[in-house]
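Quick board copy: two proteins, each given as sequence then tokens.
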Amino acid sequence: MQEEKYYSVRMRAAKNGSHEQGGKHISGGEILSTFSDMRHAVNALLEKGLTHSRGKPDFMQIQFEAIDEPIKRVKPLQIESNEVESVEIGQALSWRLLEKAGIQEQIIEKAYKHMTECSGIRGALLIDVHSGERMDDRKEKGVRVSRMDWLNTNFEKWADYYNNPKNLRVKEALVLATKVSEHPATVAELCWSDDPEYITGYVASKKLGYQRITKLKEYGDERGCRIFFVDCLEDLKEYIHYLEKETILVQWEEEDDKRIN
């Protein structure tokens, strides 16, 4: 039986003009949808863009395109929550986790310097784990990870099994972290949101899983961070193509089918 065709549905919203005209980034999102569910996907992204805490947009673009390439299914990263009392403690923990993932302290320090210099960047910074230098040439645009999702029914089964909240924000972050860490060139990811009302972030890698940290910035701060630490000396173009173009569908399967309910 032939698999139903999927479409990548994407949204981006800005204030004071489009992103290309220097507008302030408000919101973005993506859903993998079948054609029959297209209206629901578009409406969900429209609602997200119109109700973001960063402000009311005056520019929004929603588009979809058919996915003709094979879709790779991957298991979600294991998730662990780290409750911390302050941003200082959270940031110190993020450094320790990155070092545990195999990144040297001086490389992390250089990465933070690049992040400070590029505070308005919309996508991710790609940082070379050997030199600490930025690898991509996207300037303020950065690299945007795309073509990924987790079907709600499967996500909710996962959340029920592990007694996790059915939180859309956690779902989206875990999907992105899973796709990024799936590539062998990714050593680790550091992220926190540009949403001024959301101060939780994470460190993620194949080795560590998804390490959620409850405080990585101060409440009200609109500066976000997304850094990919990359060991990719040969084919950077292939790595960026994977992040932007190859389609990943996160799919969880219960580890123990004989579990007693």
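And the next:
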Amino acid sequence: METGGVFDSLLSGVCVVFTLGMFSTGLTDLRHMRMTRSVDSVQFLPFLTTEVNNLGWLSYGALKGDGTLIVVNAVGAVLQTLYISVYLHYCPRKRAVLLQTATLLGVLLLGYGYFGLLVPDPEARLQQLGLFCSVFTISMYLSPLADLAKVIQTKSTQCLSFSLTIATLLTSASWSLYGFRLRDPYIMVPNLPGIFTSFIRLWLFWKYPQEQDRNYRLLQT
């Protein structure tokens, strides 16, 4: 096997490992919900948006015939479905959660209908689906900026997860390189904001260490 082929195979494996590692960070929330039998301090929207993102990229991978995208997003969709199911089980206000779920899944179904029925050309469908997935992924990576502004305001990083930050950085970097190797801007470009926001989070962890936050709260009490 040529050097380029070996590198691409290794890069594909790295993308799978890092991405599944990022998805598995939700297991901490899953364990918390099962132990406390509540959804306190657990956010539902990230589970739902990641599910839609996985299903979108799964469709893109299937249309393109990319096994790496298919494996990662199929496993990711299963994990997010598990997280969503457990959240619904312990959530006291199921109506609002079900409404959010139905709304996003409705948008996803409309997208499937549009791409399947109104865009018959496979190449055009691949490009438009790639653009849709890219925009959705970029919005996911940029959505926590409001939380980062709150961290700066409160000078506390307690609402941030260091392990998730590292996982996001490694995942975004590997997929950006993967998209670059494939010359696929729909894979490369949307992961660049993930690198950018991860570095911002790391800077915040350095600026406002969590140990310092705990000491500050103890002094207040």
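Board note added afterward: Residues 3-220 form one domain.
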